[in-house]
Structures are given as C-alpha cells and as structure tokens.
Specification:
Number of domains: 2
Bound molecules: zinc ion
CATH topology of the largest domain: Aminopeptidase
Number of strands: 19
Helix content: 25-40%
Largest sheet: 9 strands, mixed
Strand content: 25-35%
CATH class of the largest domain: Alpha Beta
Radius of gyration: 24 Å
Distance between the termini: 33 Å
Shape: elongated
C-alpha cells in the first residue's frame, strides 16, 4: 500500500467496482487493513443481493481503553465505472470523460485507510477503531441494510461520503418509495370506447391532484416514472407510476404520503370501474444530530486544529449513515472532496485528499485523548 493518499486513491480507482461487482476492491482492502493490524471479516451480503462481495468489517484494537470510533465508506461506484483512466492536471484528478472517477466513494475509502495508517505507523497509543466498507450503496443502501449492525460497538462514527472536506452533514431526510398501479378496462378505442375505462386518464387526474415538488423547506415529493397502454386504438387498462417522498420530519413524511394516496383514492372514486393498488415503503429513516453532540463537537475541533473551514448542514439525500443511525450508532457524514459525482465530469482536488486523510488522523487522535 502506498503511503501517499493521492497515489493510494489512484490505485483504488484503477480497480473496477460498480455496484454488485466489488470483489476485487474488497480483496484489496482486506489485505491493506490486515497490514495495519486489523481483524477483518466479510459478511454474506453478496449472496443475499446477487453481488460478488459482502461488506467488510474491521477492528483495529487499541491500547486506550475506550469504545471504538467508527469510520464508514461505500466501495461501489455508479456507472459508467469500468476501466477508469485518471488524468492528473494542475492538482486536479479527473477522468478521460468516458467514465465516472469513482471519487464517490473511493476518496472516502482512501482518506480513511491513510488516516488510520498514519496513526498506526506513528506508534502512538489510540482507541480501538472500527471500519465498515459497504457494498451496493448506490443501488439503495443494500450493503448497509443487510449488514448486522449489532457488530458495531463504537461510541459514534463518521461516514466519509460527501463533498468539500470540512462539510459535516448532521442530518438527512427519511424517504418513502411509492408504487401506484391504476386499473381501468380495456376496449376498442374506435368501436366501443364507452365500454372502456381509461387508466391513463385516471392516472393523469390522480397525479395532477397530488402535492409534488418542494412541499416545504424539509419535505419533497416526486413522481418519476410512469408507463401504461399498449396501442393507440386500445383504451388502456393499466398504468404504473412510481415516485417518492422525503422529509426531515417523520410526521410530515407520513402526511404528504397520505395526501398522495388520497389523490389516487378520490380520483378512482370518480371513475366507475377503475381501481388501484398502492404500495409505500420506507427506504430509510431520517436523522438529526445536534451541534452540541460529541461527534459534531469532535469533528469541529479536529477541523479547527487543521485550519480547515467547517460547516454543519442538513443534507437532502439518504446514505449508509441513515441506516446506521437508525440502528443506534450516531453517524455524521463528512465531505471528502468528491466533486460533480455521478457524472463523467467528476473530479477531485489532490489537496482535498490530503486534508481528508489528515482529518481522519486528527479525529482518532482527539478521540483517543478525550474523556
Ligand atoms: Zn457516495
């Protein structure tokens, strides 16, 4: 393993690991973590989700008698992520424009491993360190959902999976995914349309009546997929619409989800012969960690010591931290320097990788010293 975080990052992004194909990355990370004295285990998640690798859990024992501190990142990347060719120019690492860079989330992985390496190799006493590298985050947080959270014994932790180093996401919304099927009745559109019930018409009216878009500062709703019908001369008998609702507030999430359903119910009532099926499922719960809480205070102090500008904010997306928080381990999400993620224009500043690794090192040092 290289002792240079930039070099190490370049090595990691050269290993393909689109979601469900994380085998090579997990083998590499197991070897790297073992070389730092970690006890490493991989779980069976790969089997359950049809991937070729499980989540990697590691514990580095420490001489300081405290609960461990947890660091977490996901190792899968979005597509197109095969054969990433990195270009280094003026302190920026970017791609050749044909793939993503994979800085989401290998910048997090590289910073965590290199920060820990510095602590371990310096020989200083430290608290135990837990590390969780998950699979399949990008396709619905599948790795974190399948991981046995009872394994974790950390006091709290940090997910390295956001933008600028120094940015701390101390809250994230909950999300419901929504699937609506609307049924009408098929009939020949030119011969006997009066015998049909047009499911597309019913769906259009129902969706028009829904609250959609930004509902308030902490709540959003969307219908993102719609499909139905088979031919222009057939009154369609089925429409499938899929969407989501998010809110930082559980009561509001429930309310807005109920309003979406009510819009369908009311519309279907108005069309004799129409019916519907509704499925809403909570994908993940929200979390909010107060600025006065220890994980936030420790992070702010570490950033201050390093001269990095800090900012706490509430994010708009779900990540592994939602799942781990819901299971009882307080987690905040830290920026890694990743930029323009999920696009082929993705890049990262080399200095950000250095700052991120220094931040991990300083978090461990401060935590180990503290009460
Ligand atoms: Zn990510």
């Amino acid at each position: 393993m290289s002792n240079d975080v930039i070099q190490y990052f370049l090595e990691l992004i050269a290993i393909d690991s689109e979601s469900l194909d994380e085998r090579a990355m997990m083998d590499r990370l197991r070897a790297d973590l073992e070389s730092l004295g970690a006890r490493v285990e991989e779980d069976n998640t790969g089997k359950s989700i049809n991937g070729n690798a499980g989540n990697l859990y590691a514990l580095i024992p420490g001489k300081i008698d405290k609960k461990p501190i947890l660091f977490c990142s996901h190792v899968d990347t979005v597509r197109p992520g095969i054969g990433i060719k990195a270009i280094r120019e003026n302190g920026i690492i970017r791609t050749d424009g044909t793939t993503v860079l994979g800085g989401d989330d290998k910048s997090g992985v590289a910073e965590i491993v290199q920060g820990i390496r510095r602590i371990v190799q310096s020989g200083q006493d430290h608290a135990p360190i837990e590390i969780l590298f998950t699979v399949a985050e990008e396709i619905g947080l599948l790795g974190a959902k399948h991981f046995d959270k009872n394994k974790l014994t950390s006091a709290f932790g940090y997910a390295f999976d956001s933008h600028r180093v120094g940015e701390l996401d101390v809250g994230a919304p909950a999300q419901n995914s929504i699937k609506i099927e609307i049924f009408g009745k098929e009939a020949h559109a030119g011969v006997e349309p009066e015998k049909g019930v047009n499911a597309i018409r019913v769906a259009s009216e129902a969706i028009s009546a829904m609250p959609l878009g930004r509902i308030d500062h902490e709540t959003t709703c969307n219908i993102g997929i719609i499909g139905g019908g088979t031919a222009t001369n057939i009154v369609p008998n089925r429409v499938l619409a899929m969407g989501e609702a998010r809110s930082h507030n559980a009561a509001k999430l429930e309310r807005v989800t109920a309003q979406m359903r009510q819009a369908v119910e009311d519309t279907v009532q108005k069309h004799e012969g129409a019916s519907y099926e509704w499925t809403a499922k909570q994908e993940y719960a929200s979390f909010r960690i107060g600025d006065e809480q220890q994980p936030v205070q420790l992070a702010l102090e570490a950033l201050k010591n390093l001269g990095i500008k800090s900012e706490t904010k509430v994010g708009g997306g779900g990540s592994d931290a939602n799942i781990l928080n819901a299971a009882g381990t307080q987690m905040i999400i830290c920026g890694t320097g990743m930029n323009k993620v999920h696009t082929v224009d993705e890049d990262i500043e080399e200095e950000e990788l250095k700052r991120g690794a220094a931040f991990v090192e300083e978090l461990i040092r401060l935590y180990s010293q503290g009460e």
